[in-house]
Amino acid sequence: MKTGQQPQANDGLKSLPLSEVEQKLESSPEGLTQAEAEKRLAQYGPNEIIEKETSPLLQFLSYFWGPIPWMIEAAVVLSAVAQHWVDFFIILILLLTKAVVGFWEEHQADNAIYSGSIVPQGEIGAMIYATGANTIGTSSDTRFL
């Protein structure tokens, strides 16, 4: 792998022998040295996932997007065109209720995750194997890289 090149998921590493995988990843059974870990940290950045914030309005509107909501929306429009107002309002209320309930459940689930009741706040610890020794650290703890 050339310097600065990101490893690709389709490299086929699963089918290679361990010695070739270590060679491709420029690693060894002893793990990375401190110098190599710092070099990779500078080259690739920290090992973390950056969470994207989504607008609550866009989250709510997403419940009106997709094949099933489109069919229901078409039924609402056809009911209005045919002037079947009872059907129109029943279908419209069902569509809105589905969106509100789905949005509320997703909002509650997000709150449970981010409040720490499901996933603890802060960083998750990890066993780090480097320079031939096991150490406990976190994904952004550069002392052990």
TrEMBL record:
It holds the Pfam family Cation_ATPase_N. The chain crosses the membrane at residues 60-82, 88-104. SMART domains: Cation_ATPase_N. Residues 12-84 form the Cation-transporting P-type ATPase N-terminal domain. Keywords: Membrane, Transmembrane, Transmembrane helix. Residues 1-33 are annotated as: Disordered. SUPFAM superfamilies: Calcium ATPase, transmembrane domain M (SSF81665). It comes from the Bacteria. This is Calcium-transporting ATPase. It comes from Gimesia algae. The gene is yloB_2.
